Amino acid sequence: MVVDVFMPKMSDHMEAGEILEWLVLEGEAVEKGQPILVIMTDKATVELEAPASGLLKGVRGGVVPGASIPVGETIAFIAAEGENVPVLPGFGGEISAPQAVETSSQTGLLQTPSIHPQVGQRIRRNPRASTG
């Protein structure tokens, strides 16, 4: 049975949560109650727990550290091995291609930053670095 992982409403006036860190990678097994994601709300930083046991699947595009996800939006699914999950559109903040940031003085070509972590790499972000 496919179970949605969604952005919870943690306070009456919370409209969105910021993704800080994935603790589990897509395709990894999780147990119900296991922390899978760290989010920052308007009042606190919390660990989002797996709502069921299974494999983390179908993480939506744009659900990356620094992204603001509206309350109630599905961000991923937990499903059994071999079980298909819906493919949902990415969020508006999804980066589909790296943005050019500087020109190489040697080639005159634009350089692009690497925005995607390597497989197995965890991204850590300091909430104080936010400019919101």
Helix-strand pattern, N to C? EEEEEEEEEE
Q: What's the alpha carbon Rg, rounded to whole Å?
A: 16 Å
Number of helices: 0
C-alpha end-to-end distance: 38 Å
Outline the biggest β-sheet: 4 strands, antiparallel
Low-pLDDT runs = 93-118
Query: Could you give the order of strands across the largest sheet?
Result: 1-8-6-3
Can you give a write-up of this model?
With about 130 residues, the protein is mainly β. It has one domain: Beta Barrel (OB fold (Dihydrolipoamide Acetyltransferase, E2P)), CATH 2.40.50.100. Helices cover about 0% and strands about 30% of the residues. It contains no helices and ten strands. The protein has strands spanning about 5, 15-20, 30, 35-40, 45-50, 55, 70, 75-80, 100-105, 110. The strands form three sheets. Strands 1-8-6-3 form a four-stranded antiparallel β-sheet, with no helix packed on it. It has a four-stranded antiparallel β-sheet with strand order 5-4-2-7, with no helix packed on it. It has a two-stranded antiparallel ribbon with strand order 9-10. A hairpin with a 6-residue loop joins strand 9 (about 100-105) and strand 10. The model is unreliable at about 95-120 (pLDDT under 50).
List keywords for this structure.
single chain; 132 residues; mainly beta; OB fold (Dihydrolipoamide Acetyltransferase, E2P); four-stranded antiparallel sheet
